[in-house]
Amino acid sequence: MANIKSQKKRILTNEKARQRNIAVRSRMRTVIKAAQKAIDDKNIEILKTVLPEALSVIDRAATKGVIHPKTAARKKSHLQHNAAAL
User: pTM (2 decimals)?
Assistant: First the structure.
């Protein structure tokens, strides 16, 4: 544990940010899996609701700095390409 007061505070804020990042990343992975499942099942009705949500969650993760913007673009591109194949 740090001895300097500002470093003690920084340790606490880093942990809060880490927990927030884990939650955002977990949510992103969940919606991506849901969209991919709808694509694999060729269920267009579910895909119409899940895909925009997945794209939005991916964008939010990139905006918050949880993932790199180019990683977000790649993930979105893969989902849209697979959806367009239907």
Answer: 0.88
pLDDT tens readout for residues 18-71: 999 999 999 999 999 999 999 999 999 999 999 999 999 999 999 999 999 999
**What separation, in Å, do the N-terminal and C-terminal C-alpha atoms of the chain show?**
55
Residue 64 sits in a domain whose CATH number is: 1.20.58.110
**Around 6, how many Cα atoms within 13 Å sit in the side-chain half-sphere?**
0
Query: How many structural domains compose the chain?
Result: 1
CA 61/CA 45 separation, integer angstroms: 25
Percent helix, strand, coil in the chain, to 5, is 85, 0, 15
Q: Which helix (H) or strand (E) holds 27?
A: helix 5-40
